[in-house]
């Protein structure tokens, strides 16, 4: 009978009391010895996960959004404690990439039948310490969309809130000068958005950044989008949707590269996001942490 702590964020969009009760009953019915821990403020998920590791738990399950999940994941890096994911937020990008059901009760059912699998993470050092991301970090337009979407709108409309913000800000999209250094090789890029991806899908399963992006290959994938108008934005989105063949360099509407350490410098500075959470401003440097964490995956 596995010893489990379920960390729940009550501020997340879908962590209503009825859903929490359904999740805990499902874990108990499977014979899991599960305790519930509730976050009350920033940093709680990481602290609670670290305490769980110290107390000898086997699985730390997070019922919340991507931000809460990655806070907890930071405390599990380099350990044998597995991360369980029950989507309770707005985007739930990691859960979507892992094909974890969106409904909390069904996600809990999938969790009790899941098996641990080793995944890479991206790591970024900021003034307030080390941060990790499982899906992607980015600078520019995507970070502006994340920052410009109000919490109450996310709770009310879910992913549609991000779509509304994207459309509202689309007329403001502009490319700026970037210097992107990938494993010591420097590229100049005029970009409206620079993404560093560990997983391939940004709107699972509908929008995939490109073929061959895997969270277990020891590499991070760089996706650079250039757009200065609505028409160019639509062209870039179309290229991503049809997974246009990779091109050399970073000089087209959508450019691709791959590496283990990526540094992004921009002029002027641009906002940064990590798995949808604010991450300060450029410049930043990210590195891949191969096989950083065990994540419980449906179907093994």
Describe, in short, the structure shown.
By secondary structure, this protein is α+β, with helices and mostly antiparallel strands.
Blueprint of the fold:
Layout: E1 3-8, H1 17-29, E2 33-38, H2 44-54, E3 59-64, H3 66-74, E4 82-87, H4 93-97, H5 104-112, E5 115-126, E6 129-133, E7 136-140, H6 141-148, H7 151-157, H8 159-169, E8 176-182, E9 185-191, E10 193-197, E11 201-203, E12 207-208, E13 220-225, H9 230-241, E14 254-259, E15 261-267, E16 271-274, E17 277-281, E18 284-297
Parallel strand pairs: 1-2, 1-3, 3-4, 4-18
Antiparallel strand pairs: 5-6, 5-18, 7-10, 7-16, 8-9, 8-15, 10-13, 11-12, 13-14, 15-18, 16-17
Helix pairs in contact: 1-5, 2-3, 6-8, 7-8
> How do the helices and strands follow one another from N- to C-terminus?
EHEHEHEHHEEEHHHEEEEEEHEEEEE
Which architecture name of the largest domain does CATH use?
A: Sandwich
Which structural class best describes the helix and strand composition? alpha+beta
Using the alpha-carbon principal axes, give the shape: globular
Mean pLDDT: 88
Strand content: 35-45%
- The number of distinct β-strands equals 18
How helix-rich are the residues, as a percent range? 25-40%
User: End-to-end span in angstroms?
Assistant: 18 Å
State Rg: 19 Å
User: Please, how many helices?
Assistant: 9
Major sheet: 10 strands, mixed
CATH topology-level name of the largest domain: Tumour Suppressor Smad4
Assigned CATH class of the largest domain: Mainly Beta
Total number of distinct structural domains? 2
């Amino acid at each position: 009978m596995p010893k489990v702590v379920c960390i729940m964020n009550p501020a997340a969009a879908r962590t209503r009391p009825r859903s929490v009760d359904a999740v805990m009953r499902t874990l108990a019915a499977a014979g899991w010895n599960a305790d519930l821990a509730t976050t009350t403020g920033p940093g709680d998920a990481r602290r609670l996960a670290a305490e769980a590791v110290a107390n000898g738990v086997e699985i730390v399950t997070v019922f919340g959004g991507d931000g809460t999940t990655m806070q907890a994941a930071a405390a599990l890096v380099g350990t044998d404690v597995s991360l369980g994911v029950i989507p309770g937020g707005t985007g739930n990008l990691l859960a979507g990439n892992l094909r974890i059901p969106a409904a909390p009760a069904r996600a809990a059912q999938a969790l009790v039948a899941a098996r641990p699998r080793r995944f890479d993470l991206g790591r970024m050092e900021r003034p307030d310490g080390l941060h990790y991301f499982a899906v992607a970090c980015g600078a520019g337009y995507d970070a502006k969309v994340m920052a410009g979407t109000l919490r109450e709108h996310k709770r009310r409309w879910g992913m549609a809130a991000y779509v509304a913000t994207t459309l509202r800000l689309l007329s403001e999209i502009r490319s700026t000068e970037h210097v992107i250094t990938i494993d010591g090789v420097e590229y100049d890029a005029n970009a409206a958005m620079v993404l560093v991806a560990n997983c391939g899908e940004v709107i699972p399963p509908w929008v995939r950044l490109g073929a061959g992006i895997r969270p277990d290959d020891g590499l991070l994938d760089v996706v650079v989008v250039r757009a200065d108008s609505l028409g160019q934005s639509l062209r870039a989105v179309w290229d991503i949707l049809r997974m246009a063949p990779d091109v050399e360099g970073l000089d087209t509407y959508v450019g691709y590269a791959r590496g283990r350490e990526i540094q992004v410098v921009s002029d002027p500075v641009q906002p940064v996001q990590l798995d949808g959470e604010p991450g300060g401003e450029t410049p930043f440097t990210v590195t891949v942490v191969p096989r950083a964490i065990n994540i419980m995956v449906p179907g093994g």
